[in-house]
Amino acid sequence: TKQQMSNYIEKFANIKSKSKKKGENNDWTAKKYEETLKNYPNLQKMIEEPFLLQIILSVLPSLVEKYGVGNRISKAQVYEVFNDQLIDIHIENIITKLSELRMQMNSNKIKSILKQYCLDLGFDMFQQGSQIAIEPEFQYQNPEIENEHKDNIIEEKTETEIKKINTQDIWEKYFNGDSI
Question: Rounded to whole angstroms, what are the CA distances from 3 to 12, 35, 70?
Fold first, then answer.
């Protein structure tokens, strides 16, 4: 409901104002979040989903900065800015850890590598999302059609098994611990 969203925005703004870092200018109040959201009509449907509301609130200042007030913002743009923020946080952590080890690395290089990793992973996830085999929901009354269908099922099962093996290979390059 609208009241639940408003309450969530109020809590979000309070938490953000309490957790801001030194030197960080955070003048985003609950009222400012709500007024800014009204300037983006296409975000209204998205903020009805609690998960997207949280993401949108966390990136709203960056969205305004990047795209300006009132422009159409797609879900993909929201995810892109959110992903950029996550990458920046991780880069900051990596740089801190490396400095503790007295090592240096260019943050732009790390960002480039992490972005490419995310793009590759997202593309492979998209490719793997296609459905290969579909189980029949009915039985054929004509035996010839049923036999022909059984042959197709065997081919689909073989293709599915090959696809499983290939899929495992695809994910290994992302989740083997040293892929970046």
Answer: 14, 15, 23
Give the global pTM: 0.64
pLDDT, tens digit, for every residue of 41-54?
A: 888 888 888 889 99
Identity at 88, one-letter amino acid code = D
Name residues whose C-beta falls within 8 Å of residue 174's C-beta, 6 or more positions apart in sequence: 117, 120, 121, 124
Helix (H, G, I), strand (E, B) or coil at 3: helix
**DSSP secondary structure string, 24-47?**
------HHHHHHHHHT-HHHHHHT
**What secondary structure letter does DSSP report for 102?**
T
> In angstroms, how far apart are the furthest CA atoms of the chain?
76
Rounded Cα distance, 51 and 178, in Å: 30
Q: Please report, for residues 1, 17, 110, 152, the alpha-carbon distance to residue 101 in angstroms, rounded to integers and kept in the order given.
A: 50, 33, 17, 58
